[in-house]
Amino acid sequence: MIRFEHVTRRYEPGGRPALDDVTVEFNRGDFVFLIGASGSGKSTLLRMILREGLPQRGKVTVAGQNLGLMLERRVPDYRRSVGMVFQDFRLLPDKTVFDNVAFAMRVIGAKRSQIRERVTSVLERVGLEDLGRRYPHEISGGEQQRAAIARAMVNEPAILLADEPTGNLDPRASDEVMKILRWINASGTTVVMATHDRAIVDRMRRRVVQLHDGALVRDDERGSYDPPRGSHAWTILSEQETSGALRAHDPRPAPAPAAEPAPHTVTADAARSAGEDVPAVASFDSDSESTPEPGTTPEESPAPGEEGIHVSWPDHLRGPQAVVDVPEPTGEFDGAEMPDLDRDGYTEPESGLEPEGEGADPERLRDALRQAVSSHTQMSAGPEGAAEKPRLSWLSHAAGGEVDRQGSAATPAAPGSANDRRDEIEDARLRAQSSEDEPPIHEPDHPASRGQGPRRRLPVPPASPAESATAATPDEGEGPASSDPPSSEPAPPDPASVEPADRDVPEHVPDADRPASAVDAEGEEVADLPPEHHQSDAASPADDPIEHAPPGGSSPDVESPEVPKPRSSASQSTYTDTRRTAEQLGVTGEHRSIWRRLRRNR
Ligand SMILES: Nc1ncnc2c1ncn2[C@@H]1O[C@H](COP(=O)(O)OP(=O)(O)OP(=O)(O)O)[C@@H](O)[C@H]1O
């Protein structure tokens, strides 16, 4: 589902690679812990899945879509099919909890009634039903993270990326968050979580992928935080430990050197060619992009020319394979919180939207794209829709087995409920079990304890004619959008003037591929807002035509995203954070009012 093939990523020409020839694959329904010392490349890897940064060498593929060939105007849509949560929550500070979650639905043009119903359900699911009217600063860190998860999941993405989601939380709040992530994963959502939390990794015994200095040094199916004694990773870390380089990040005593290193489970090492020279200057390896790798299937590696128009969407990505991977591997759970997927009808394979191989009909793919966008808004599929296309909703799935396909009557395990108590008991049992094996160690030098806030700015996709030339080819058959002149584009964020500190090395994203049209709640392309809708801030939503104008003005019932209004004297950091959050939620260029106001609020 997510595949890195010999991916090398440098932030600076000639600098040390943040990712160094990484080859790894995450499958549907996986729960993966991504571990490694600070600076080892975990966040970089996650951000590359979100298509924030492209490799200088190698290829990142998600559901058959080569992200290096994805057009810029497709990126917002793509990001909506990937949820992401962060250590520092990144809630919009001037929005209530409810509105923060609703924002992700407004971005896709969902109807008010859908938003109301869906957000209410999601907040119940994460135990925040009573806190919807509060602002982020009025709730605890654990509650903020649950709100952030609710926002990431409200559109039912197929992939959830979590970058140290428990890093700022105490153990109890961490447990709540992990419980929710387990539920989400149990619904078939692929979860990739970067963490330094040894206790959590050791307790859950899921797949562990370890990075070290940008290289993948371990990939264990049911791993613990520490690499197996004698393994390749263990040897490397031991050497580092001896030299003192890892002391700041791993308080444990260094293991004694192995007499005979055992065979290890390294994936990347097997593929690494020793001494390979990596170009110092960012340059896209077009050869590796266009040449199908031996051994890959057509679905996973679409034919040249078709890659740019493949779609990857939440529903169809949750196939039977995800369900197969769902059961807890170690018997830590008694199954009480896991619904019977077969009984609940969620194991039927979906059809029709799988990534296409060679010869795919562009028209059909376009329809699939529209349909997929539309499906984001079908948050409460009615009986008819449910019968045609059963959905695997983490909301209903996670509700202790009481699955409701309509998504409205699911019983949430809110704090204090019977399900919640059962979970608490289970978690307590897990903790006890874990502590019998090995006392959990909380790292004193965890980034959270260092008072580490948002560490780096996410890259803003810049333009490059080189990639434009590379990427335009496969998408050219898609119609008028590809012929839009760059100069006709509205003004959304000007990375150079707005956020110089956030600039990344050029990543070859063509300006010309910014979106020229929006997609409404029905999945139809609609025209951009007329100029008169892009005016100054209105005193109240009722006065503001933007607030009430759906993208394209197609329906008064369709909500347009509200404009985040930074609370704290409109500081640059607030602006930057808000803008970054909006980008990650897939706010597109046609939401000009958002960008304009964000700039004005600096
Ligand atoms: N925007 C950036 N510009 C330049 N260098 C960067 C940028 N982001 C990350 N790096 C560098 O890339 C390397 C990997 O960083 P990354 O954030 O991926 O590590 P990490 O494992 O997530 O660390 P942590 O556990 O502290 O979050 C580090 O050397 C870091 O300094």
TrEMBL record:
PROSITE patterns: ABC_TRANSPORTER_1, ABC_TRANSPORTER_2. Residues 307-318, 419-430, 439-448, 500-514 have a biased composition (Basic and acidic residues). One of its GO terms (cellular component) is plasma membrane. It is found in: Cell membrane. Residues 351-360 have a biased composition (Acidic residues). Residues 2-238 form the ABC transporter domain. InterPro entries: AAA+_ATPase, ABC_transporter-like_ATP-bd, ABC_transporter-like_CS, ABC_transpr_LolD-like, Cell_div_FtsE, P-loop_NTPase. Residues 243-602 are annotated as: Disordered. The keyword Nucleotide-binding applies. The keyword ATP-binding applies. SMART domains: AAA. It is a peripheral membrane protein. It comes from the Bacteria. One of its GO terms (molecular function) is transmembrane transporter activity. It holds the Pfam family ABC_tran. Gene3D superfamilies: P-loop containing nucleotide triphosphate hydrolases. PANTHER family: CELL DIVISION ATP-BINDING PROTEIN FTSE, IMPORT ATP-BINDING PROTEIN. NCBIfam families: FtsE. Belongs to the ABC transporter superfamily. Homodimer. Forms a membrane-associated complex with FtsX. This is Cell division ATP-binding protein FtsE. It comes from Nesterenkonia xinjiangensis. The gene is ftsE.
